[in-house]
Design goal:
This protein is of the alpha+beta class. It has one domain. It contains 4 helices and 6 strands. It has helices at 29-43, 93-106, 108-112, 122-156, and strands at residues 11-15, 20-24, 47-52, 57-62, 67-72, 84-89.
Amino acid sequence: MEMLSKPSAGWTDFRLGKTVYGLSYSTAVPLNWLEQAIHGLETLMPFTVYGFCEPGAVFCLVGYRKCYIIFDREEEEGLSPDDAHFETVDVNMLDFCKSLYTDINQNIDAWSQWSPAFFESPEEYHLLHLEEKKKLQMRLDRLEILINENTSFFSTNSTSI
């Protein structure tokens, strides 16, 4: 299941359930989402990831057995039933983290260029790209370890958590 599409021109598609949300580079999706997933698996606590859709924002609460997606169009009057979308998806925490790992790992070069930046020289851009890729790889390595450590927990405790 592809949850995050390969980033292109500062956008990625987030798909979990029936709806697709276009997320912009104004959210540090790869680093923030990996950090939240790592924290969730380290503590075995639900966590939330989010992204800006311009306009609007999507929030995904990742629980033990399900994910809960809320989309807010961010109207000035505040949230109303017409402005919000809510969806429950049968994806557990471990499967969410596996999808996140796969989607970022498969496109790590594109994700390391996620945030736009303007530089005086191609060398500066290349150095930033390498630095971002290193940060992503460190988090991917940690997430992979946690996925492997928690696989048996989620398979044996799926009915009690």
